[in-house]
Structure formats: C-alpha cells, structure tokens
Amino acid sequence: MGFSAADLGAIWLTLRLATVVTLLLLLIGTPIAWWLAHTRSWLKGPIGAVVALPLVLPPTVLGFYLLLVMGPNGPIGHFTQSMGVGLLPFTFWGLVVASVFYSMPFVVQPIQNAFESIGERPLEVAATLRASPWDRFFSVALPLSRPGFITAAILGFAHTVGEFGVVLMIGGNIPDKTRVVSVQIYDHVEALEYTEAHWLAGTMLIFSFVVLLALYTYNRKTKRA
Amino acid sequence: MRVSFVLAGSLLVLVGLPCAHAAEVNVAVAANFTAPMNVIAADFEKDTDHKAKLAFGSSGRFYAQIKNGAPFQLFLSADDETPAKLAHEGLAEPASQFTYAIGSLVLWSAKPGFVDAKGDVLKSGKFTKLAIANPKTAPYGRAAIETLTKLGLLAAVESKFVQGENIAQTYQFAHTGNADLGFVALSQVMKDGKVTEGSAWVVPAEMHQPIRQDVILLATGRGNAAAEALLKYLRTDKAKTVIRSFGYGF
Fold first, then answer.
1. Is the separation of the CB atoms in B16 and B22 below 8 Å?
2. ipTM given for this complex
3. Residues A48-56: what's their mean pLDDT?
4. Whose C-alpha in A84, A96, B161, B193 is 20 to 30 A from the C-alpha of A211?
C-alpha cells in the first residue's frame, strides 16, 4: 500500500495552497497587526473582532457566505466576472481567498502580540537616532518580533493544511485544483476505503504533531534566550 | 354514569393512548428523498400517532455510521446495494428490504431556458461548470457518469466537473448558480409533477442503470412499532402518490 497518484496530488495541492496562503497572510497580516498594535482608534475593537471571527465561527458559516458572495449573484462574483477571471468557487484561487480569511487570526494575532511586547520605547530610541519610520520598522521592530513571525507562519500554514469545512463547501472536489488532503480523507472514509484513509490520516496526524512540537520547542528556547 | 364515562375517556386520552400506541423511529434518509420524506413523515405522524425523526445524508456515510452503532431503526437508501450489504452483515432484516422508489436523473440549470428539452446543451459545450454528485459514493453521480459515457461526452466535459459530496450539495452548487449545469435528482426540482424553477432535461431511464432506492429495517429496529408501521406506510397509496408527485417511479 502507500499513496495513490490521487493521494499524492492532494498532498501536493495542499502544500501549494498552504504556502501561497501563508505568504499572502504574512504580507496582508503584518500591516493589520501593526495597526492593531499601535492604534488608539475606536476601530481597534471592531477590526480586531472581525479578524478573530474565524476562531469562533463554524466553517459552514464562512463557506456558506463565501459561496453566495463569490457566486454569480454576489458582489465578489460580479467583480471577478467583470475583471474577466470568471467565478472563484471551485478554483484554486477561490480556496486561497477563503483560506486567507479562515487562517487570518492565526497569523495576525502572534504578530500583533510580538509588536505589542516590543512596546514604544525601542522605536522612540531609534527615532531619536534619526531612523525614518520605515527604517524603524525594518531594523528595529521586525528583528525584535521574529519569534512572533515564525509562530504566525507556522500556525497559518498548519491551519490551512487542516482546513476542511470551508473547502468542502466551496471546493467542488476537483482533482489537483480543490481536492485537498482533508477532503480526500473524507472521500476515502465515505467510500469505505479505510486503508487509504489510514495512510493519509496517519500522515496528517504525525505532520501536525511534529509541526506543533517544533513550534513549542522553538518558543521555549527563544523565551530562555 | 356519564361523568365517569367522560372521565374514563379523558384518562384514556391522557395516559392510555400515548403509552399504548405511539412509538418513535429514527430514520436515516438518502438526501435525494428529503422533500418527499418530509411530506410522508408528516402524514405518517398525523395518521398513526407515531413519531418519525428524520436524518438526511449520503447513503455511504449512513452505512459507515450504522456499522458503528448509529441509533437508526430504518434506512431509506439511495441505492439497493447498501441495504443489501447491511443485511448481509447482519445489521439489517433481509426480508424487510424493498424498493420504495426508482429515482430519475435530471440535467438542470437555475437559468430558465438554458437547458433544452434534449439536453443538447451538453454537446454545445457552452457552460463553464457541471455539478455532479461524487460517483464513488452517490448513485445519482454514478448514473450521471453512465449517461455521459453513453452520450460519448464524458471525456469532453470531465474537465468541467465539480463534485458535491451528496446530491443535496450538488443541487446547491447548481441552485446558487456557481455551477451553470448540474445532474441532480428529479425530486429536487419537481413539485406536484412539474419542474418549478430553472430549466431541465429529464434523462431518459435507458441512459443509465435504474436507480433503485431500497428501504430496510435495521437490526436495531426489530420490534419497534413505529419503524414497522412506517415501513408499511411507505407502501400505501397515499405515500406512493406523494412519491410519484416528486418524479419517482416504481
């Protein structure tokens, strides 16, 4: 036994999806985290709550609304159609958009915590040394919050790999496009192919454990250092 | 005299009737049979005082759940193989199995006028997504593949497939317009003998193996009055009229 070609396709697709989503989230999430960490605006509460929503919402809620909003009668659907890229549901990029929403808190929150724990002081010191705002961000804030970024990247990646409900609702189970590992496992179980299901499910279990173990070990080391 | 008669009568109503007759049955129902079963169960509860609690889903999942001790007493499958398998494994009563409906497949679009009366839209290729139920687990998905194979179109349209986990999700993909075409169960788009929305081509029965939908009494339902009553009720003319009005045959 082992992995079939379809299983390998699902694994490859999942890794690709998680990589793209993690990179996008680091790009989008960093400014959001920075703003949340430094703003005194009344919007901090509402925006922070929106970012955290996927932590408490069932994936079905997100999947349901994404399907409607990205569908032919939804605002995003209208937009993507007028841009000539068609509809997002049942496409790889549809999953990317969904996963960015779904994994957002796992990336934004560790980075925000890291920014907040630096405090204003090192930035003020840098400012008195005539560092420009960009310089302060890249030479002071970023290196000091490295552990936060690493936690964010790992959690964002792992959480996207572990996504199921949203993909099931907007994916359409298309080989090499939207059939990710979690859906493939579900299919194996539904079709009573328990051996195949065990292979993939066991791999996922070990993968997730190793990832979290590495993360916790790393976090303990950086705290001691 | 009269007072005691009324008293006895109301006592009988209050205490006697619910205990003597009313039982409860948990029914696992194939997703395509959702609409007719809701009607039948409501009639059944009115006519018999029994209670029927319905759970809808894919037959493959119900099989796995029943095998692992799910508390269902009656199983209305979307095929005839799954009930037979359960009977073979001693989890259901073989003698109780019968075909409660024969399903019809329909090519459907939420857009009016999109599907023509002969299904030629499939040949035209003028659509972007075709929703089908997962052929590995759903009989309607298998029937869709057989139909496309017979039309010689499978290779041409395969790249446009989107798969629903069961026929309910397949219908939802087509209904929201995210897939402009879908092979769904006629029962999902038919009410009172008419296709009420969108446009449809009812696939001729000879295009695929008949979709025999069998019901079976599960081992856990032995001696359950409500389960046995509902099994019988499915054969009544009243139930059959409902079943037929949703586009099923016998």
1. no
2. 0.74
3. 94
4. A96
